[in-house]
UniProtKB/TrEMBL annotation:
Protein name per UniProt: Acireductone synthase
InterPro entries: Enolase-ppase_E1, HAD-like_sf, HAD_sf
PANTHER family: ENOLASE-PHOSPHATASE E1 (PTHR20371:SF1)
EC number: 3.1.3.77
Broad class of enzyme this protein falls into: hydrolase
One GO molecular-function entry: acireductone synthase activity
Keywords: Amino-acid biosynthesis, Hydrolase, Methionine biosynthesis
NCBIfam families hit by this protein: enolase-ppase
Species of provenance: Leptospira limi
Amino acid sequence: MQIKHNLLDIEGTTAPITFVHEILFPYAKKHIHSFLKNYQFSEEKWKEIQIEYQKDFFSNDPSFIQKFMVENSNDQIPKELSINMVSLYFEYLIEKDRKFGPLKEVQGKIWKEGYESHEIKSTVYEDVPKFLKQSIQEGKQNHVYSSGSVEAQVLIYQYSVLGDLREYFTSYFDTAVGGKREKESYLRIANTLSALPSEIRFFTDIVEEADAASVAGMQVVILNRPGNLPQKPHSFPIWDHF
């Protein structure tokens, strides 16, 4: 089946893992408290945050206990999250690299301020623009699927050290379509693109994501970039670069 669409992960695929973990995450953590002072969550988002907090409250995770005990002089962790404590909880989620929608949304807005103030410039692998341009010349469309919010995805390509790369992408998907290790997520993306799964080639650095996309019927390539985490044995094609 002819490939008509490229679906690309970001972290460890088109951008180094170090950029995300050493630049973006620390920046969000540094600014999370000041940003949330004047931020209003929708009622739906606040319920989602409370549900997630309850899971952690009953998890007995030592790092969760330590994080909140330090901030509570009465030596008791609150059973319900207050608006005044949400920044502390989000800081905990950042440390855990939790793929949580409301957190990703807030991070995207914080990063937007950082990009626009020129405090942040994104690092994208040098072989990416040529690959994207060549794909378009071959009649393929390029799309992004990442756990970061769509807003955060756009910013990475808009403010890259290689220039504004947004012209090379047709659409962006985040975990609103589902988790990246779930077959159904890839089927939803194919449906949105009005394409057969077999007409889509998914690029990632994580075998479990590759497995889910493959089961959905997509073709898959694993990227082995410098600094990527070792993966369990698999039969997918491995590329060191585009």
